[in-house]
Amino acid sequence: MHKPPNNPSPPTPHPTPQPKCSEDPGKCLIIIPAYNESASIAQVVNDLRTHLPHADILVIDDGSTDNTHKAVPSHTPILRLPFNLGIGGAMQAGYRYASIHNYDIALQIDGDGQHPADQAHKLITKLTESNADLIIGSRFLPNDNDNDPNYTPPATRAAGIGVIRTLVRLLTGLHITDCTSGFRACNRDVIKAFAHWYPEDYPEPEVILLLHRAGFNIHETPVTMRPRTTGQTSIPFLKGVFYILKVTFALLLDLSRSPWPNKKANQP
Ligand SMILES: Nc1nc2c(ncn2[C@@H]2O[C@H](COP(=O)(O)OP(=O)(O)O)[C@@H](O)[C@H]2O)c(=O)[nH]1
Ligand SMILES: [Mg+2]
Question: What is the CATH number of the domain that holds 96?
Answer without folding.
Answer: 3.90.550.10
